[in-house]
Amino acid sequence: MTDAPSPAFASGAPKRLLRLEALVVLVAAIGFYWFHAGGLIGWWGFLIFFAPDLSIAAYAVGPKFGAGVYNAAHTYLAPVALAAIAALTREPTGWLLPCAILWVGHIGMDRTLGFGLKYSTSFADTHLGRIGRGS
Question: Could you state, in order of their start, the residue ranges of all structural domains in the chain?
Fold first, then answer.
């Protein structure tokens, strides 16, 4: 079995800018949600906000599969597509756009805290650096 190459991490000013950018995304998502939903986030909003973290369970299969599922749930591609579907269909129920906004906010929060996209080497290896003790 060959060892996987060591992943490269963002560091210094680029890392700080990526985390600051994520904070801006989080604050903007909170603002958009407040405007669109007209007030405080209810209990269901908290459940939806943290739902992407269920993808961590995929690590039970292995780090490569886990990283793929986690990254799919923690990129902006899916929530932006969900928001586009909401806009294009003029969704009559009015729940797709709030879900997309909460999803984007979750990603912004994670990246602000340093939880970046995962490498297949380990859950702790992210594009923003290693997470956890001893990092």
Answer: 12-130
Taking the whole predicted model, whether its pTM rises above 0.70 is answered as: yes
What is the distance between the alpha carbons of residues 119 and 62, in angstroms, rounded to a whole number? 12
Report yes or no: 125 and 7 within 8 Å, Cβ to Cβ.
yes
CA 44 from chain centre, in angstroms, equals 18
Helices 12-37 and 96-112, interaxial angle, to 10°? 150
H helices of 11-134, in order, are 12-37, 43-50, 63-73, 77-89, 96-112
pLDDT tens digits along 112-130? 999 999 999 989 999 888 8
- C-alpha 98/C-alpha 13 separation (Å) is 33
Q: Of 108, 85, 113, nearest to 97 (Cα)?
A: 85
In whole angstroms, give the CA distance from residue 40 to residue 28.
Answer: 15
Write the CA distances from 68 to 44, 56, 106, 119, 126, integer angstroms. Answer: 26, 10, 18, 9, 12
